[in-house]
Design goal:
3 copies of one chain form a homotrimer.
Chain A: E1 7-12, E2 25-29, E3 32-38, E4 44-48, E5 62-64, E6 67-69, E7 76-77, E8 83-85, E9 103-106, E10 109-113, E11 136-137, E12 141-145, H1 149-157, H2 175-178, E13 182-186, E14 197-207, E15 223-232, E16 236-245, E17 257-269, E18 272-282, H3 288-318, H4 331-349
Antiparallel strand pairs in A: 1-10, 2-3, 3-4, 5-6, 6-7, 7-8, 9-10, 11-18, 12-18, 13-14, 14-15, 15-16, 16-17, 17-18
Chain lengths: ~350, ~350, ~350
Amino acid sequence: MWLRNCWYVIAWDHEIPAADVPEMFSRTVLGEPVLVYRTSAGALVALQDRCCHRLAPLSKGRREGDCVRCGYHGLKFDAQGQCVEAPGIPIVPEKARVRAYPVVQKNKWVFVWMGDPALADTALLPDNFSCEHPDWRNKPGYMHYDTPYLLICDNLLDFSHLSYVHEKSLGGSAQIAQAVPTIEKVAGPRGDWPQIGIKVSRRVANVPAPPFYQRFRSFDTPLDRWFVYEFLLPGTLLMHSGGRPVTDAPDDLSRAVRLHSCQTLTPETETSTHYFFQQSHPADQGDASVTESIYNSLIGAFNEDRDMITAQHRSIQRDPDAPMLPLAMDSALLQFRRLVAARAQMESTKPI
Amino acid sequence: MWLRNCWYVIAWDHEIPAADVPEMFSRTVLGEPVLVYRTSAGALVALQDRCCHRLAPLSKGRREGDCVRCGYHGLKFDAQGQCVEAPGIPIVPEKARVRAYPVVQKNKWVFVWMGDPALADTALLPDNFSCEHPDWRNKPGYMHYDTPYLLICDNLLDFSHLSYVHEKSLGGSAQIAQAVPTIEKVAGPRGDWPQIGIKVSRRVANVPAPPFYQRFRSFDTPLDRWFVYEFLLPGTLLMHSGGRPVTDAPDDLSRAVRLHSCQTLTPETETSTHYFFQQSHPADQGDASVTESIYNSLIGAFNEDRDMITAQHRSIQRDPDAPMLPLAMDSALLQFRRLVAARAQMESTKPI
Amino acid sequence: MWLRNCWYVIAWDHEIPAADVPEMFSRTVLGEPVLVYRTSAGALVALQDRCCHRLAPLSKGRREGDCVRCGYHGLKFDAQGQCVEAPGIPIVPEKARVRAYPVVQKNKWVFVWMGDPALADTALLPDNFSCEHPDWRNKPGYMHYDTPYLLICDNLLDFSHLSYVHEKSLGGSAQIAQAVPTIEKVAGPRGDWPQIGIKVSRRVANVPAPPFYQRFRSFDTPLDRWFVYEFLLPGTLLMHSGGRPVTDAPDDLSRAVRLHSCQTLTPETETSTHYFFQQSHPADQGDASVTESIYNSLIGAFNEDRDMITAQHRSIQRDPDAPMLPLAMDSALLQFRRLVAARAQMESTKPI
């Protein structure tokens, strides 16, 4: 289950080659291979990566100016997906075209809109500001999952797993799991999106600094930690997190660790997912080696998640009807799944 | 097709770690992953290897005393499968539990009962005495098959294949295939198991010693050989076999080779199988090198079987409706298949 | 979709071992594994490679004279597929037999008839003369495809792909794609085969010599090129092709490149295909190094085809209901697909 009328991240901007590079970029989103390239003027183009003639992937062809030519029988398509040349055919039929998708870049994330193009509204783009902001620094990350995207949403919506999956990395204390988070609705910017996500605020008092924080400075007292994030449709996490020595005054952040993280999930197929992420630190705290070490911590921790979620997915596949037992900690993830289901239901009754 | 109300071997005892070892043992039986561990008192515990909360495998968690804790969100289960702690939840619901299976060890084989626990009766355990007996010596073996378990039962119920599959190893003569075995019913220890298996007795006169016998002593005359075994539900072979120089008096076993073998098949999935086996020689005949060489012969011969049965399985998968042609040599295997089918039918009408 | 009442190439003659070689040859055709061997008199035998008893592949057994013996339980079959010996069974039942297929060799191709043996008529064999002819030389080739065979037929029936897939190998000019071929029906030798294929003639004037032609001689003028071929049921291409300097008189072939190519496709399964091919040059033009270089060119170009068709096949598998857009260049391939469909329909109403 997934939504179509949403912006999905298909790539980091650096993954899309410049106009003068012959290689083309293609990635599958919601089961559809999508070709993304830049025109000579720098505009982004997203086309269905499948020739309308015999269904060969256009990405096995070549760029010709702002057009692409299929490498099988030579049909040439412009940036709107219209076939403008077919060898040996004087008049190309109007219906010779491939689908073009709305595509937009914001703060280094390249988004495509897989649903009704008339509904694509950039007001719905998430505020992934720290991906590209002079006050913040990060190293962008990408990871591929062989699991459905909702299982990863579940993971991101219940940080109690930090105590167990990430015991030796991001977590470090059973108190994270024991803390009860505050859960609030996030309303959308438009009236037809009354709720676009969930805000989760989890504060944990007087816990040891996780190993990962020691990269900033050496902490010799416990910390008060916080994780405050929005988790937005279709699957984007925007989080402020940090920790402050318990001995410091509540309004004194001088020795605090402060982070901002943008993470987003894009279904590749029913059972595989693209994961784009970064965790930023303030530009005036920490140098390039801190940026690198935060990135490496994240990769390490996200591999722990992927191991667990992949094992969970295999377990579910073995017995797809096995019931899960809802517990208090599932509150946010269940609310998010209901939100996805409700919007999927709306889309299915108004088919695009 | 398989039976549930049976004891299945899940492991050799040495495969289950001691209580103070952090690693946990998990193996799939009848499509269900089962976690097996020992309490500090040494008792065996077998639990469904799937957390009742979000279905993650418990074996990716950790031991805590005689309990196991899930590595995803930290639920803790006791040796009866009851959840005794869930982080952040003051009162754990009664229904938070995983299935516990009856588990028992006999002569180094660890058995689980996958059906109705109320029917689990140790009187039904097979007499695998030579697996652990002062008069016998062996080296335990394990092999994994990517075929349904009944195809391997078939193989063990028709030793005519020794002449062809094992021509150069266990077999050595077409006379084995030509000999007609005696086939008898084996009654169970309880009235509700009127037949639990088949006894097959095959005697072959005046044949060369198989290459494998030469490890005991050098034979310069032909042998009279015998293979006398019970093949019991769900898939256990208990066999006395041997050979005696034809020149020796019938009651003179002084120069005979005598072996006792215990082998058992446990379905992993519909199309894969666990195979546990050993072939024992008398403790007073042959030293450790003989034990090792019997083991190596067995591994070699069982690889020959696996190659053939795997090829047979692929052939069947290509055309699942292709009929087999019953011949006289199939008498025991057809009888066993009818026995399994009849009991499976009983189980399906009294669902557990 | 495929036809059964056809001759399919199962092997080049050199692939079938001589009678005194213990190894046996087996290859799957139309989903059925077929064992092919030679009798001591040199006659070809083709038997279903699956014992009628327990369905083990006969090719895992052994030759015994002109018979084969199953390696599982020892059944022995003669060259007609009749079981002539079953260990321990005094009288072998008449129905103990495996299917024998009509098999014939013509010009180094070994053909089997997978349908009704009564309809097998060698008059239907294609004229693959250059595979074995004193006036022609070639090196035989074989390639395996993980795609349905009809996608490869499509490729061979529309040479416009030469301009794009083989731009740097066999092709070399967009004019090949722009040229409009002549398409004619090919009638069969028997009244019940009113059409057995399609003749495609494509002439391209004044184009550069393809890189591959430079192996014969160095061309310093453009060429007039021709590709004239029959594409016959079930999937055989017989082609005369060549090129002549535009400066030469129309009837002067003294500096022309002339080639004859025989290629044939045999479905292995619904989604995989055997491809047998050669491209011959006149025996009096070019030496062994030319033969080798033509072969290498062909392998290179056929790998280009396989890459493209495999990508096309994956694209189709992702969305099996996606429509293709018929264009003028598809005329021959659509006609051939209709021909196959019509005959498949005939076979399904007169089941064999």
